[in-house]
């Protein structure tokens, strides 16, 4: 299916938008202690979806905190803006690999709030194709997990 956005609950899958299953555990806090194993393909999918969203959101917060240009209005074409984002990511990764951690960055990671004004997408056209793909992906992950319970 290529690239897609990981979205929060409350909608249905559409072209390019992947939502978790409704009615199944999702948030990491919903997976306490001994009850932390997914009980079905839908829960496993939701668990992996939530973990991926957490990583992505944390990284965007770090990038937005470090690079002011990412917090400013978009005056550039989409193509130029994508290049700016890529450049910020590359420099961020280079700094992370080649330099000692900046104490301010470490503190920022724990205390930063999302500073972007988000434009809302008000509706997404439902797509049976994407829902079928999500179902097949969830079942594939479940089958792989059954073959290797440590996953």
From TrEMBL:
An example GO CC term for this entry is: nucleus
One Pfam short name: DDE_Tnp_4
The similarity annotation says: Belongs to the HARBI1 family.
The signal peptide annotation in the UniProt record is none
Species of origin: Solanum bulbocastanum (Wild potato)
Q: Its domain of life?
A: Eukaryota
The identity of this protein, by name, is DDE Tnp4 domain-containing protein
Answer whether the UniProt record assigns the keyword Nucleus to this protein: yes
The keyword Nuclease is assigned to this record: yes
MF terms from GO for this chain are: hydrolase activity; metal ion binding; nuclease activity
Domain (DDE Tnp4) spans 17-93
* Classification via PANTHER family: PROTEIN ALP1-LIKE (PTHR22930:SF293), PTHR22930
The subcellular localization recorded is: Nucleus
The protein's required cofactor(s) are namely: a divalent metal cation
